[in-house]
Write a structure and sequence with these properties.
By secondary structure, this protein is α+β, with helices and mostly antiparallel strands. The chain contains 24 helices and 17 strands. Helix content is 54%, strand content 12%. The longest helix has 45 residues. One of its GO terms (molecular function) is transmembrane transporter activity.
């Protein structure tokens, strides 16, 4: 008897018992439904995580900073296994010692920048934009100087808020809502929606960036001097702020003034003096400064990451503002004088001291003593204070104070990519650079960097996989239970068809043929169970997706791949066939004569 014939006989038998067959198939499908739903949800969540990962990783640049703290972060308590000592002695766990030995490392970005320029064609194929960051922050002031100079960047809110909360003071001191935008228009268009106005196009144009809820921080309003910072000391005023709203037009056209960093310094008595505390002088500098105008209101698109420092929005400018500031700093008299006299501190008129000593008139020349005597008491105090402030300065520190940057030595390099795969290829390119430097014995030029977002996303993907495996393991128990049930039902079928077995044996059917008949019957039941389970799962994905989409705004969270569905149907068939092995063997061993006598 062929297997096809066995299938036909078994199918006809199952048709005579439709109700029991469907109930058996449904019972057998419960495990399949459970596993299919888990796998559908796991697949949907994994796809969502992958999409978020790719969108996030593409929108965020691969950043390599000059300062890397990998060594410092790697420092941990000495947890190595050591024999426990019980001799009334206390050992030392050298946590602080190890921490002090671990210094913050530095990446040689100058060498890497040169490498990028030497492999420009290769780098161009791997990136869509490269941005070099420098430790240069423009000085921004409010345009209105009628009540004196008002600092916006760096922020002086910490000095204007009356609070004993040192944590709050520290937060306000580090407050910075200003960031540099990418110069690549395609990146801007892919990351931001223009709510009003347009993108900035030159050094004098800036934009306001709001958060995903079209909100900006109250601190930004105070930082920009749109709200009076004195209100921060008035609780009633702060409570009223929560009910206020603004229009886009309230910000479009708003202006500020940028003052070149070196314009703060003036040469007096052959020494350069910082006049930032001189309100009259700074007022003139602000009035003559570069006017910055808000020309647009932007909002970052869903699934992207903003380059703005603050999560609740901020102000962004183009790289041309940094270029403008750097160029004017480099061409300033104070920088030219300092670079021409690298051993002389232009702020003190003394050589950079290896062993600096506090100010003393005994250390002055006769000419310097005469100049000091001609000064007013206030000027003398300012001179002494400036002398002591610059006492331990070095040539490099003076240039940094002036805002001088070395274009060949960026503080950070940001590499933007167009796709997730391109970012992976870029990492391989950087790893190849590191390998080449190691082989050349230039370990000091090996770059240390990390992609924290990818690490987090990979951890989430791994977690989803682990949870899926555990849940499938639990649900698989129901498959075993249903297999036992099918085995019992098949055995009952054997008992019911004992006479039929006898007739078939009398007609020449072998034991193998009998086994084949019942194996075919269990295979049909397994197929029906599998198909029914997949059908129920597919129907269940519609309400599941609708509920999840309504609750989280994430669609198609339950997706059952076709290959998974086919595999589950196959598993169902195999399990039911295994469950029918014992009953089919019992049926094959029945004596034909005894079977014919049964009723």
């Amino acid at each position: 008897m062929s297997f096809i014939t066995a299938l036909v006989l078994s199918f006809n038998n199952l048709l005579t018992k439709k109700g029991r067959t469907l109930l058996t198939a449904f019972a057998g499908s419960i495990g399949i439904i459970g596993i299919a739903l888990i796998l559908a949800l796991s697949n949907g969540v994994s796809d969502y995580v992958k999409k978020v990962q790719e969108d996030t990783l593409v929108s965020l640049p691969l950043t390599i900073s000059e300062q890397n703290q990998s060594n410092l972060l790697a420092t941990s308590p000495d947890l190595s296994e050591k024999p426990y000592k019980d001799n009334h002695e206390l050992g030392i766990n050298t946590i602080l010692t190890n921490l002090l030995k671990k210094q913050i490392g530095k990446n040689d970005l100058a060498s890497f920048k040169t490498y990028l320029e030497e492999h420009a064609s290769k780098v161009e194929s791997l990136t869509k934009d490269i941005r070099y960051r420098y430790n240069l922050q423009p000085f921004i002031y409010a345009s209105d100087t009628s009540n004196g100079p008002k600092n916006i960047l760096p922020s002086t809110l910490a000095d204007e808020v009356e609070t004993a909360n040192q944590t709050m003071k520290g937060y306000l001191q580090n407050l910075n809502y200003w960031s540099e935008l990418s110069s690549d228009s395609s990146i801007l268009e892919s990351k931001y929606d223009v709510l009003e106005g347009r993108f900035p196009q030159d050094k004098s144009e800036i934009v306001l960036i709001v958060d995903e809820n079209n909100q900006i921080s109250d601190l930004l309003l105070y930082s920009l001097r749109i709200k009076d910072p004195s209100e921060l000391n008035d609780t009633k005023k702060l409570d009223e702020l929560s009910s206020q709203t603004y229009q886009y037009s309230d910000f479009i056209g708003k202006t500020f003034k940028a003052v070149v960093n070196t314009n703060r310094f003036v040469k007096e008595n052959n020494l350069w003096v910082n006049k930032i505390a001189d309100a009259s002088y700074m007022k003139t500098q602000i009035e003559n400064g570069l006017e910055l105008k808000i020309v647009g209101v932007l909002r970052q698109k869903d699934g992207t990451s903003s380059s703005v420092n603050a999560p609740s929005g901020g102000i962004a400018y183009t790289s041309t503002l940094i270029d403008y500031t750097s160029e004017h700093i480099q061409n300033s008299d104070i920088v030219k004088e300092q670079e021409a006299n690298q051993n002389l501190n232009v702020f003190t008129g003394k050589d950079f001291a290896k062993d600096p000593k506090p100010f003393s008139s005994e250390n002055l020349t006769e000419e310097e003593k005469i100049q000091l005597a001609k000064m007013t008491p206030e000027e003398q105090a300012q001179y002494v204070q400036q002398y002591n402030d610059n006492l331990a300065s070095t040539y490099e520190e003076n240039l940094a104070k002036m805002g001088v940057i070395n274009k060949s030595k960026p503080a950070a390099i940001e590499l933007y990519t167009s796709s997730f795969q391109q970012k992976q290829d870029l990492k391989e390119f950087i790893n190849a650079y590191n390998t080449a430097k190691k082989e050349a014995g230039e370990d000091d030029k090996v770059l240390a960097y990390s992609d924290d977002i990818q690490t987090i996303m990979s951890s989430i993907t791994t977690l989803v996989g682990v949870v899926t495996t555990v849940l499938v393991g639990f649900v698989a128990i129901s498959l075993i239970v249903s297999s036992i049930m099918i085995s019992i039902i098949t055995y009952i079928s054997v008992l019911e068809r004992t006479k039929e077995i006898g007739i078939l044996r009398a007609m020449g059917a072998s034991k193998k043929d009998i086994r084949r008949i019942f194996t075919a019957e269990t295979a049909i039941e397994g197929f029906v169970s599998g198909v029914l389970g997949i059908a129920v799962t597919l129907l269940a994905t519609f309400p599941i997706n609708a509920i999840v989409a309504k609750m989280t705004n994430v669609g198609n969270v339950a997706q059952l791949p076709i290959e998974v569905a086919l595999i589950l149907i196959g598993i169902s068939i195999v399990l039911t066939m295994l469950a029918g092995l014992i009953p089919s063997r019992i049926a094959a061993k029945k004596d034909p004569v005894e079977s014919l006598r049964s009723e």
